[in-house]
Automatic annotation (TrEMBL):
Heterodimer of a catalytic subunit and an accessory subunit. It comes from Musca domestica (House fly). This is Queuine tRNA-ribosyltransferase catalytic subunit 1. It comes from the Eukaryota. It is found in: Cytoplasm. The gene is LOC131801516. The keyword Cytoplasm applies.
């Protein structure tokens, strides 16, 4: 059978920051080109809550994420195959990345039993049992047709210590071999292994070393954002990006707070995903450079400004904070309007970082971002230390706070 000789994923570093590990790249997959660093909105069930595919295209979203476990439960493999894959089923023409279902080992642990064979789940829908093995995870992802697939990994909470962490790391490496063997569509879809090892740098190093022996087109860093301290978080990311190949994309799973995105781009990460932008929209919160606006707050009742005067999303063009205040969490359309803005905010942040890297102005961007994002408080110590590790020095906290107070006083006069 004839095969497409062009690899289903290529990655090229376009520019690198001369100080930090930040880089801008171009990742090309079957369905679209993806500029990195990139944030991937999460459409777990093949849909973004309150946001249509056409709206995502208007925002120039190049890639989104869906979940293997949930799609395997419903609609299931048979429907996905008959529909010709998830792209056609959800009417999305651009790239898709699928999580393997491994994260549900943590989030649905009370419904799961983990063995060497795989993960035995009890369905939260009808209480039926389902064995998710590495092979079955790949079978579902082949049916989904995602451009990038994740291996099934053995996930443990970051707060767990002891032999279970090392067991999960070694099992993850064994399972990637089973995933590679089961992968039936290597001409169309790329499989990423996942670096595990908890918060132990030596286990992370062992895992990276083991995974790099396999022929893959990119890597994911998993097992973080699960309750560990921010100090442990950034040091683990730093350890992994120091070791992973420079010519392949690096995906940090489940990270989406703006400050975390900026720090982790500085640490050398290319791809991110998180439910945060759409989830916080459902609670009436809008993302802005300073953090979040809780539009349920009474102070926005008469505020006829847009959420963000610099934002060009349809929500900011057409609606005011006052309007959104009156419908937030009450009318379902508020979720849609705020989700559009929040996704636009994340995507614009990534575009701004790409441009700064390409112009070799990334450290200046980081300093400006941090001064605006932490308006009424010093930049956290962990951020300062993480950035210092990659040669970006922020003003000391005393000078930083004094400068912000002086600036606010000048603006109020």
């Amino acid at each position: 059978m004839a095969t497409n000789k062009v690899p289903p994923l290529t990655y090229k570093v376009i520019a690198e920051c001369s100080a930090s590990k930040a880089r801008a790249g171009l990742m090309t997959v079957r369905h679209s080109e993806v500029n990195t660093p990139v944030f991937m909105p999460v459409g777990t069930q093949g849909t973004m809550k309150g946001v249509l595919p056409d709206q995502l295209i208007d925002l120039n979203c190049q890639i989104l994420l869906s979940n293997t476990y949930h799609l395997g439960m419903r609609p299931g493999i048979d429907i996905l195959k008959k529909a010709g894959g998830l792209h056609k089923f959800m009417s999305w023409p651009r790239a898709i990345l699928t999580d393997s279902g491994g994260f549900q080992m943590v989030s649905l642990l009370q419904l799961a039993e983990i063995t060497e064979e795989g993960v035995n789940f009890r369905s939260p829908f009808d209480n039926s049992e389902c064995m998710l093995t590495p092979e079955h995870s790949i079978e579902i992802q082949n049916a989904i047709g995602a451009d990038i697939m994740m291996q099934l990994d053995d996930v443990v909470k970051t707060t767990i210590t002891g032999p279970r962490v090392e067991e999960a790391m070694h099992r993850t490496i064994r399972w990637v071999d089973r995933c590679i063997k089961a992968h039936a569509r290597d001409d169309d879809q790329s499989l990423f292994p996942i670096v595990q090892g908890g918060l132990d740098p030596e286990l992370r190093k062992k895992c990276v070393s083991g995974l790099m022996e396999r022929q893959v087109r990119g890597y994911a860093v998993g097992g973080l954002s699960g309750g560990e301290s921010k100090d442990e978080f950034w040091r683990t990311v730093h350890t992994c990006t120091d070791l992973l190949p420079k010519d392949k994309p690096r995906y940090l799973m489940g990270v989406g707070f703006a400050a975390d995105l900026v720090v982790c781009v500085a640490l050398g990460i290319d791809m991110f995903d998180c439910v945060f932008p759409t989830r916080t929209a459902r609670f009436g919160c809008a993302l802005v450079m300073e953090g979040q606006l809780n539009l349920k707050n009474k102070k926005y009742a008469l505020d006829l400004r847009p959420i963000d005067e610099d934002c060009e999303c349809s929500t900011c063009k057409l609606y005011t904070r006052s309007y959104l205040h009156h419908i937030a969490t009450i009318e379902s359309v508020s979720c849609s309007l705020l989700s559009v803005h929040n996704i636009a905010f994340q995507l614009r942040l990534m575009r701004t970082m790409r441009k700064a890297i390409e112009q070799d102005q990334f450290p200046a961007f980081v300093k400006d971002f941090m001064s605006k994002h932490f308006v009424d408080e010093p930049v956290p110590k962990w951020i300062r230390e993480a950035l210092t590790a990659v040669n970006i020095q922020l003003p000391n906290s005393t000078e930083d706070t004094a400068e912000k107070k002086h600036k606010r006083a000048s603006e109020s006069q």
